[in-house]
Design brief:
- The relative contact order is 0.13.
- The protein is built from 16 helices and 13 strands.
- With about 375 residues, it is of the alpha/beta class.
- The chain starts with a strand and ends with a helix.
- The radius of gyration is 21 Å and the shape is globular.
- The longest helix is centred in the first third of the chain and has 26 residues, at about 70-95.
- It has 2 domains: about 1-180 and about 355-370, Rossmann fold (3-Layer(aba) Sandwich); about 195-355, Rossmann fold.
- The strands form 2 sheets. The protein has a 7-stranded parallel beta sheet.
- Keywords: Glycosyltransferase, Transferase.
- This is Glycosyltransferase.
- Belongs to the glycosyltransferase 28 family.
- GO terms for molecular function: hexosyltransferase activity; UDP-glycosyltransferase activity.
C-alpha cells in the first residue's frame, strides 16, 4: 500500500508525524511526505522520503492575510496554502498514486486531494489542543471555490481521525477519534552519559523555548539558570547556537546547546518553556511537571489545560521586562520542585499516554480502511 503524508507548519509538525510514518514503512508499505520546501530538511533529518509541493513557507501564506484575529489569519492563510499546492499535489498523485492520504491537522489540501482521488483520508491530530473548531470554518470559507468545484458544501470529512492527546486533556469529543500514543521524535546526535542519566542527589531542570520563539534574552536566561542552581538544581538549556553564544560561558551545573528532548526529558524533574506543542508533548510523555509562559492563543490553551489538570503552572507575562520574567519563572520553578502534587499529576498524564494504542496499532486500522475502500 502507498500512504501519502501531508504536513503543514514548521519543523515540529514534521517531527510529530514521524512516528506514524515510520510505523507505516515498518509494516512494509510505501510512504512519501509532501510538504513545503523549507521543511524538507526536517523530513530528511527524521529519515523519511520527502517531496516539495511549494517553495514558499507557511509564513508567506499567513502574511497575505490582513485580519486582526489570530484564528482568522491562521485559517485563511492555511486555506490559501492548500489551494496553492493542489495542482502540484494532483501531479504528484498522478505520478505516485496513493492508496490513502494522511494529513496533519491543518493540512487542508489532504482532504481535497483524497476527494479527488477517491481514497481514504486520515486526519492526524499531531499534538495537544489544536484549535480546529475555530480554524476549520475560516479555512472552509477561504476554500469555497475549491469545494464548489468538487460539489462539496464543506471540508471533506476524514475517514479516520487519529489523536495523540492524553484522554484527560483531549479537546475533541467525537466518538470516532482513534487515540494514539505520542512518540517524541527529534534530530539525533551522539550522546554523552549525562544526557541519559539523572544527576545524583539533586533535581534537574530543563529550560527551552523551542526553535523559533525567544522566551528570554541571554542575560535573563542566565539570571533564571543561576537562581535555579542556587537551590542545588542542575540546569540543562535546549538552545540554538546563537542563544548559547549569547549566554556565554557555563559552570559545571549548567549545560546549554543542542539537547535531545526525547532522551533528556525523562531525566528531568521540571521543564520551563513557552508551551510549544512538541516540547509540551515530549515533556508530558516523560511525566515531568512544567512551568509555561505561553506567547499566543494556542500555547495558552495548552498551558491552561495542563495547569487545570495540576501538571503545570502558567505564567502570563506579556508586559513584563525580561529580567522580571526570569525572576517569576525561577520562583514558580522552586514552588513546583517543592510540591510533589505536580509530579504526581504529570506522571498520571504520562501513564495515560503510555496506555494508548501504538502507531503500529493505528497502522493496522489504516490498512483495514484501505482494504475496505
Amino acid at each position: 500500500m502507498r500512504f501519502l503524508f501531508l504536513t503543514t507548519g514548521s519543523h515540529v509538525t514534521v517531527y510529530a508525524i514521524a512516528a506514524l510514518a515510520h510505523a507505516v514503512r515498518n509494516a512494509g508499505h510505501e510512504v512519501l511526505v509532501a510538504t513545503n520546501e523549507p521543511l524538507i530538511d526536517a523530513v530528511e533529518t527524521v529519515g523519511l522520503p520527502g517531496v516539495s509541493i511549494t517553495s514558499k513557507s507557511i509564513r508567506h501564506f499567513l502574511a497575505t492575510v490582513d485580519a486582526p484575529d489570530e484564528m482568522a489569519v491562521t485559517g485563511r492563510g492555511l486555506g490559501r496554502m492548500a489551494a496553492a499546492t493542489l495542482a502540484r499535489l494532483r501531479e504528484l498523485a498522478q505520478d505516485w498514486p496513493p492508496d490513502a492520504i494522511v494529513g496533519s491537522s491543518m493540512s487542508y489540501a489532504a482532504g481535497l486531494l483524497a476527494a479527488d482521488r477517491d481514497v481514504p483520508f486520515v486526519r492526524h491530530i499531531e499534538y495537544l489542543r489544536i484549535p480546529m473548531a475555530e480554524i476549520d470554518p475560516v479555512a472552509a470559507e477561504e476554500l469555497v471555490p475549491e469545494l464548489s468545484r468538487r460539489g462539496l458544501v464543506g471540508l471533506p470529512e476524514p475517514d479516520l481521525v487519529v489523536d495523540v492527546s492524553p484522554p484527560s486533556l483531549r479537546s475533541s469529543s467525537a466518538a470516532d477519534v482513534h487515540p494514539m500514543r505520542y512518540v517524541a521524535t527529534n534530530p539525533q546526535r551522539r550522546l554523552q552519559r549525562w544526557a541519559y542519566t539523572r544527576p545524583q542527589g539533586r533535581p534537574r531542570v530543563l529550560i527551552t523555548s523551542g526553535t523559533h520563539h525567544r522566551m528570554l534574552a541571554g542575560r535573563s536566561l542566565r539570571r533564571l539558570a543561576e537562581q535555579l542552581t542556587a537551590v542545588n538544581a542542575e540546569v540543562v538549556i535546549a538552545a540554538p547556537t546563537r542563544v548559547a553564544e549569547e549566554f556565554g560561558a557555563t559552570a559545571d551545573d549548567i549545560r546549554i546547546g543542542w539537547i535531545p528532548l526525547d532522551t533528556v526529558a525523562p531525566t528531568c524533574d521540571l521543564a520551563v518553556h513557552h508551551g510549544g506543542a512538541t516540547t509540551t508533548m515530549a515533556v508530558i510523555a516523560a511525566g515531568v511537571p512544567q512551568v509555561i509562559t505561553p506567547p499566543n492563543t494556542h500555547t495558552r490553551a495548552i498551558a491552561d489545560a495542563l495547569a487545570n489538570f495540576g501538571a503545570a503552572t502558567t505564567i502570563r507575562a506579556p508586559h513584563q521586562a525580561d529580567h522580571e520574567l526570569a525572576d517569576v519563572l525561577a520562583t514558580s520553578s522552586r514552588e513546583l520542585l517543592a510540591d510533589s502534587r505536580y509530579a504526581r499529576q504529570a506522571q498520571a498524564l504520562a501513564a495515560e499516554l503510555a496506555a494508548l494504542p501504538t502507531p503500529a496499532d493505528i497502522v493496522r486500522t489504516m490498512e483495514a480502511l484501505v482494504a475496505a475502500a
